[in-house]
Design a protein that fits this description.
By secondary structure, this protein is mainly beta. Helix content is 10%, strand content 46%.
């Protein structure tokens, strides 16, 4: 049962959590569960001289790191760069998407309640329950540290209440001392790839000079967004992309020339992240939506996508 707090108080905790994620220094071991798969990462974060820094180090059999230095993203991993539809998540919690700036809008599309107190990684936590008011987005549960406001644990829930994806700190240092050197890449781990952020701000159309599209429909509250999610892709000119967010959930749309030998990507869900593609009508182009939304949302959004001008160079 929800605690006797007002919606405004619950939203204040959500805002505090969002700000703490961005401005607090912390160093922790985080367990990420999706279905029967588990991975452990080390997350380091600091706010130095007005710039946000983060380092996510995979602690499994394959050494890989993602480093954020302000708006720049550096990836260190063995092998070749990731494909265009693979995303690297600099912050492991989906709440770091601009909650503070869109607090009142979030309240229009989600109900936010404060429920049971708990302990996570040895810290007292308040549990926030976030439920969508329509079928086009997921529900969340957030465990927020009472003292610092940091997000200690997160569940992304399907429409039937099952857990799609969860993150939880097993250990967390809330008072680390970091210098800039803590966020420099280690080339001994593998190849170093530097990538541009896929952050845009604007209306519901996208124009890169190569592709111009318009979305005739989006779920209420979704707009083009700056986010802490970055897509890591080879430097090619034969596709364009745009990200959208409602402040909690996010998805990216890619448009690229259709290649018959490759076909259309199959519909795949990994944890909370869906990949859904469809061939555009009367067009030699394919659109792909990738993000934390239900399948009904992906189908409706791509079904409302129209392209007025196509002049993509089909060669890198």
């Amino acid at each position: 049962m929800a605690n006797t707090v007002t919606a405004s108080e619950a939203l204040d905790w959500l805002k505090r959590m969002d700000q703490a994620q961005k401005t607090t220094a912390y160093d922790g071991r985080l367990v990420h569960l999706t279905g029967d798969k588990m991975r452990v990462v080390r997350v380091r974060h600091a706010f130095l001289d007005g710039v946000e820094y983060a380092r996510v180090s995979h602690l499994g059999s394959v050494a890989a790191e993602v480093i954020r230095q302000g708006d720049k993203v550096i990836c260190v991993y063995p092998g070749q760069p990731l494909s265009r539809h693979e995303q690297v998540q600099v912050f492991p919690f989906s709440s770091s998407l601009g909650v503070s700036q869109r607090l009142q809008q979030i309240h229009q599309y989600y109900s936010v309640d404060m429920i049971n107190s708990d302990r996570v990684a040895g810290f007292n936590a308040l549990q926030l329950q976030i439920r969508p008011k329509d079928q086009y987005r997921f529900a969340y549960r957030f465990w927020v540290d009472v003292d610092s406001g940091l997000l200690l644990k997160s569940h992304t829930l399907s429409q039937d209440g099952s857990v799609y994806e969860q993150y939880e700190y097993a250990h967390l240092d809330k008072n680390p001392e970091f210098g800039l050197e803590a966020f420099e890449p280690d080339p001994t781990l593998g190849s170093v790839f530097k990538h541009e952020s896929s952050e845009h701000v604007g209306t519901n159309s996208a124009n890169s000079g190569e592709v111009n599209w318009t979305l005739g429909w989006l779920p209420a509250g979704f707009v083009k967004a700056r986010s802490h999610f970055h897509s890591v892709m080879p430097k090619m000119r034969n596709f364009v992309m745009q990200m959208y967010s409602d402040g909690l959930s996010t998805f990216t749309i890619f448009v690229e020339p259709y290649q018959k030998q490759q076909g259309v990507l199959p519909t795949v869900r990994q944890g909370a992240t869906l990949t859904y593609s469809q061939l555009m009508p009367s067009s030699d182009y394919v659109a792909t939506l990738m993000g934390e939304v239900p399948l009904v949302t992906a189908k409706a959004v791509l079904g409302a996508l129209s392209m007025q001008k196509i002049s993509i160079d089909s060669h890198p």
